[in-house]
Amino acid sequence: MGCQQSKAANVHHASANKASSIPHNSTQPLSPNSHASMIRNVALPREVNKISNPGQKLFYLLNLALQNTRRNKVDDLIWAKVCKICQKSKNAADYQDPNSGDTPLHLACRLLTIFPYDESSNVLSPLDAIKVMIRCSVDIASVQNRQGYIPLHDIVRLDTQTFQGVTSSSALMHQTQVVNFLIAADYEASVEYLQRNDVVHSTEHGAATPLYHAVASLMDDFDVAPGATVAFISAIHFPSPNMVSAQNRDNYDKPLALLYRRFSRQFDLSEQFFPGDNSRQEVVDHRNRYKTTAMNTWKVVLALLDPLLDKRKAVSDFYMVHAAVRMETPPDLLRYIIETRPEEVRQTDENGQLPLHVAAGSDKSASSSKYHYKFVIDELLYSYPDGAASVDAENLLPLQLAIYSGKAWIGGGTKSLYDVYPDAMSRVSMDENPSIKTALSFSTNFGAEEQKTDGLDAITKEEHYDAIMLVQKPNADLGDVISAMWANEEDGGVQMLGCAAIADMAKKVSKDKVRLNWMALTSVTTVVNAMKNHPNEPAVQEKGCNALRILAAADNYREVSFAASGAIASIVSAMQAHVSDAIVQREACCALRQIVKFGGKERATVIASVSGFTALQNALGAHPVDVLVQTEACRTLECLTAIQSANLPDLPTTQTGPLLEAAKQRFPDECGEVADIVLSRLS
Fold first, then answer.
1. Does the pLDDT value for residue 264 go beyond 80?
2. Keyword set for this entry (predicted)?
């Protein structure tokens, strides 16, 4: 007998072809030739006809449609009514509301995001109406409202509640056509908007780039014939491709990082294991659906890495590793690309350059992170160390390119190139690069007898930002801490202090859910990476568990996943590797309990699947006289067993029972009540 839990597999999913939850008025399909007569015959609402000013009339009509649509009362003929007003009064679209500053075009774009176009009904489309509005008022596409946003702002992201469960490929393609038309209507104003990083759609998500907001609004795309999501993101990305690496104003997340978290979550679900026969059809269908959506997400990643990918003659013309190195690709995504395409690390592009040459020669100002290029160069050298001795088409070595581009000695990866192939320094003029000579004197005995002060200030500044010092600074920037941790994975001290710094920052904002969520976007994977790289160092495991405990409240926010990221597995591994360390056991128990508290049955099931119950039993058995370990382990067991719908294993009473009884007897005040609750769930 064991813990009495429901073990029924829950593989139910909404059909990809599920009808929209918004009821549509029944409209008979019309031929395209009927559009003109439909505009003539369509009737405006009585309250709209009472308004004499054409601009106010148009604005009121669209505002009324917005309000009614939010109440699930939609009007399929709204776009014909818009055209009717604009055709009667050419200046109607010029109207600007004195309170909000919105134009009718702002409202039209807003309406389209909550009322997707249904191509099965051959009524006038939103694109038809928007074209009419812009023809009537050529400057309307660049008019800003009081918030400082042009109409494009209201259509560059999806309303996920509207599109969720809808056969939305055609609707999304139509929205993409509107985006393209608005950008073309005023390209300069559109690019200016798309290059902003302070765009706000809600205070919960903060200020970010339009591209980031668009990516964040994407839903899982289960369409086996993909294209809609890629086309939508490409339309927003292509006019300003540099924004894929731009930093948001309010957080350090970026579109590619968000997409990789989504891809990881979807791929994790595609390999999900269910109780019983996993060859049954519903399990196979579940896995295939998430394999499909994971691949569709990956196609969006490819589109962001190379906006011209779909215009190339062949996919082989695209060097994915080169493209990833050229931009500030998130470290975990870059590592995945290098590991899955190792042959490309050895291939040269049309300029005769390896990815290592590209990274070494990149403008140092292209990265907002202090240690980004060190991480990139280290990863490439690990995959192909011989690249350090390879010349490009201009007979230049990576070390030469790094020095000529002004890369920092440590943080820029220049020292890494020198360490792998020191003979490359013979090609560098010390007289023209005195700071390099000084840097070498810090690292080796090179030129010690001739050492001068030339460039010393630069090297001193470099040393000031040495990773071990940076992560200890009380006012350290989160982005710098994360960059330093990824670039110095092998340094246990940097990882331990970095995890401690992240925990301190998270603790300071723990009562502010919004700011904690923003922190977790980039912090969770960084902490997990530290724990994975130093499994035998209890200090790293302890600080990592503490950081994850505080960040657990952000689980499921914008693809932050304590399952897919490996956070749960890392915590349980820490418990298994350091059974005798009471501090690690206590911190790990606390972290697991918080993860279950915020993640629910899915996270409880994952904890069970990675032997979390065994780890908790071991903690109780290994530290019988430590009140904190006993208390936290009992509380975590109670939290896990309280979830009736989780897929949990049978807890052997012969092992768990005595441990709980001992905890209750030894620490009745701290463990008595909780232990009794868990014991009551055992049979």
1. yes
2. Repeat
Q: What is the structure's pLDDT at 460?
A: 42
Cα 87 from Cα 133, distance rounded (Å): 9
Statement: residue 316 has pLDDT above 60: no
Domain that holds residue 500: 475-680
Taking a C-beta distance cutoff of 8 angstroms, is the pair 297, 258 a contact? Answer: no
Distance CA 300, CA 311 (A): 15
In Å, the largest CA–CA distance within the chain is 94
CATH of the domain at 383: 1.25.40.20
Q: Tokens 């995890």 sit at which residue?
A: 499
C-beta of residue 183 within 8 angstroms of C-beta of residue 235: yes
Whether 377 maps to a domain, the answer reads: yes
Convert the pLDDT of each residue in 127-176 to its tens digit.
Answer: 999 999 999 998 999 999 999 999 999 999 988 666 654 446 888 999 99
Claim to verify: residue 586 and residue 670 sit in the same structural domain: yes
**CA separation for the pair 273, 64 (Å, rounded):** 49
Amino acid 443 reads: S
Is 126 a residue whose pLDDT tops 50?
Answer: yes
Residue 505 lies in a domain: yes
Give residues with Cβ within 8 angstroms of 327, minimum separation 6: 244, 245, 305, 366
Radius of gyration (Cα) for the chain, nearest Å? 29
Range 476-494 average pLDDT:
96
Task: Kindly tell me the burial class for residue 660, based on how many C-beta atoms sit within 10 Å of its own C-beta (0-12, 13-18, 19 or more).
Answer: buried
Token output for 531: 């724990």
Give residue 225's Cα distance to chain centre: 24
**Residue 602 phi, psi dihedral angles, 5° rounding:** -60, -45
User: Mean pLDDT over all residues of the chain?
Assistant: 89
DSSP symbols for 57-77: HHHHHHHHHHHHHHTT---TT
Paired with 199 in beta bridges are 208
Where does the pLDDT of residue 604 fall: very low under 50, low under 70, confident under 90, or very high at 90 and above? very high
CATH number of the domain that residue 78 is part of: 1.25.40
Residues in the chain: 683
